[in-house]
Amino acid sequence: MADIEKKPVGITETILRDAHQSLIATRMPTEIMLPIVPKMDEIGYHSVECWGGATFDASLRFLKEDPWDRLRKLREGFKKTKLQMLLRGQNLLGYSHYSDDVVTYFVQKSLANGIDIIRIFDCLNDLRNLEASVKAVEAAKKENPQAHSQIALSYTIGDAYTDEYWADIAKRIEEMGADSICIKDMAGLLVPYEADKLIRNLKSSTKLPIQLHTHYTSGVASMTYLKAVEAGVDVIDCAISPFALGTSQPATEVMAKTFEGTPYDPGLDQKKLAEIADYFRPYREECIENGLMSTKVLGVNIKTLLYQVPGGMLSNMVSQLKEQNAEDKYDEVLNEIPQVRKDFGEPPLVTPSSQIVGTQAVMNVISGERYKMSTGQTKDLLSGKYGTTVKPFNKDVQKKVIGDAEVITCRPADLIPPQLPEFEEAVKEYKQQDEDVLSYALFPQVAVDYFKYRKAQQTGVDEKKADTQNGAYPA
Question: Which candidate, 54, 168, 343, 387, has a CA 20 to 30 Å from the CA of 80?
Answer without folding.
Answer: 54
